[in-house]
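cron nightly-structures :: item 1 of 1
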Amino acid sequence: MDQGTGSEPKFKTKTSAGAEPALMELFVDSLRDIYWAENHLVKALPKMIRSATSEKLASTIENHLAETIEHVSRLERAFSLLGLEAIAKKCDAMEGLSKEAEGIVESTDEGTATRDVGIILASQKVEHYEIATYGGLVQLASTLNLADVAEILAQTLSEEKTADQLLTEVAENDINYKASEEA
């Protein structure tokens, strides 16, 4: 913050007046990264839905697509609470995870449970990345005394954890067994 140099703080919000500028900068940068990632998933998930063989898997991903659209909206609210424009910063991790998922779809046979297992594995990697990101962001928001933003991010974190659990249930209840019987 201002240390007698006459310069204005880089970020001004009601709740973060005492926040360290470097930590706030890291927080905002990370928000922009996950904002890109969520927007990217809104575009990528329909392909996973179309590629799934199992109706249960397709509907699970479809439900998460609807949640992901809400996650984008929540991030936009978080930016608004910070007095910032919602600007995306390319997320190299999500881009890599998406390419890996596309590779799994391309390298497995259409209409097989094996492809569905691959889609679940790829989807869970995405969920785990999001869980790690949102978990860290919730903690940072709390540290920066941004309780309203932390609450928004915590809601998304909870939904990401639930999505991961649902994917596990779909795999355990049917798809892994079917895939083990495929030639």
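cron nightly-structures :: done
The longest helix spans residues 147-180.
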